[in-house]
Write a structure and sequence with these properties.
The chain has about 650 residues and is α+β, with helices and mostly antiparallel strands. The strands form eight sheets. It has a nine-stranded mixed sheet with strand order 29-30-32-31-33-34-35-36-37, sandwiched between helices. A four-stranded antiparallel sheet has the order 1-2-3-4, with no helix packed on it.
Length: about 650
Amino acid sequence: MKKLAVLLSIILVWACKEEPKTPSIAETMQTYTIEQMMDNEAIGGGSFSPDKSKLLISSNRSGIYNMYTVPVTGGQVEPLTQSDSTSIFAISYFPNDERMLFRMDGNGDEIYHIYVRDTDGSLTDLTPQEGARANFYGWTKDKKSFLFASNKRDARYTDLYEMDLETFTSKMLYKNDGGYFLGGLSDDKKYLPLIKPINTNDADLFLYNMENESMVKINDNQSANSPEDFSPDGTSLYYTTDDGSEFAQLMKYDITNKSKERVMTRSWDISGSYFTEKGTYQITYINEDAKNTIEIRAVATDKNIPLPTTAGMDISNVSFSDDETLMTFYAGGSHTPSNLFVYNLETGEQTQLTNVLNHEIEAQDLVNAEVIRYKSFDGLEIPAIYYKPHQATAENKVPALVWVHGGPGGQSRQRFSSFIQYLVNHGYAVLAVNNRGSSGYGKTFYQMDDLNHGDKDLKDCVEGKNWLASQPEIDGTKIGIIGGSYGGYMTMAALTYTPEEFDVGVNLFGVTNWIRTLRSIPSWWEAQKEALYLELGDPNSADSVRLRAISPLFHTDKVIKPLIVLQGSKDPRVLQVESDEIVAGVKKNGVPVEYVLFEDEGHGFVKKENQIEAYSRVLEFLNIYLKGDKGNPIDDTEYIESDV
């Protein structure tokens, strides 16, 4: 009995011992520098070499984008170009040899030229006309030439050209005096889809006969219409339309009898569809709640084939080799940058070719975003993407930012952003709102901000701030607003027209004077200029009164909260003067304001050294004026301006 009592007491002692506590991510996570976070590699493309042994990609691993190759079996990524000033973006291997096409512009001015890299490493500009921009439109069926569009004849209009691969001489195939957007030419070069914008949502779709110069309008009603691809036998054109529907659906137009057939509908926009080289598969993209869903249909069986498995990641893009035996795909998510894979359709084997997350970063320290929805001032449901820091709790409340996408008409997507992850890693919650006027949620929602910018769309952002303030992990007295381009406009509109709502503003190359911006849009936007005027207003008409009223530049006296502005001097969309003047205007109020100007960037920052400077400056600003001591008088902070 005595032994039994001792044994029972030992058992009781052990039973009362606490199990070792597993530390939370918040307790173990690291805080990363901007240099570490921006050392995540960004890659794009994936053109197969003629023998399928390599892929041609673009990567910013050198600090700016250059061309590289990577073996399809995995292995060392090899550099092909060594530009240290202007980014180089790969287009494609030549169909029958290892020459390559790529494009460059002038440090963000968007005047793209098409270049060839020969097998000896020499680089030649194939479209050297000064001031003219060129865009690759695909290889011809016989692989002896490629198609490209250029505005070299008239800066306002984009014509279609064909360039011979041996002589590099080009000829015009279609003279575009009608100001259309060009679709993809049929394989037999007989039919060319043309798109005529009506407004920023709707566009008429035409099919132009290259032989007899006749043209047929495909859509019957005003709607959004976009050509996708011709059927493999060339008898039909596939296109998307929202005619009779909130969302874009896939249609098939019979060229001979002009009949139309609906071939696919989903509860979201069908955003693209194309056939592989031999017509074995049809690939269709669906914009499902701000991320891509992909369906691959085997044409012969009319059944979808399964996609490769990717644990914890979403496949965002696929591409096929010409013989259709290999498929590349990108897989990633809001919590991880996308890597490139190759999938063998015959064996089912898949190979990861890249590992772009900086090895110094622990994957669990990054945040997986959540799609949420909140009610706006009028009851309208607003979708948003929420990034909650690991360290955020009801006991450890964090500051937050409302993030506004570009546009108008853009969409915040469920994809990786080093900048957002950097802010979240440093203890800032981010709510990326898709306010009314955003794409992806039906045409009614998309058109809700027409001729109403700076009003209801801004109120949606304010309600996003209120949603954040209601979350137990958020410090409701420390919420700012941030955005680029149209999002930069919304930042300035918030600080101007709702000056008490947000505590700071981060304006990334944002529009501040709609009259000037709409009058100075690039010449190559001629085809969509009238559509922009219908959505925003015509600056050369009585609309200018309203445009002035919603332009923050003319109301800077109302700004009372700290502001940082970042701008690229080569920006052709939002001119540098926009940021120069808004900074000067706000400065007069004695408001803390910082200005960071990049001499070698355009509409967005693509060079790593500039990204590091820009995003570190933003965090420093937020740490002082949002996370910091709010008791500091406003005039204790000096105005800072710097050219980078």
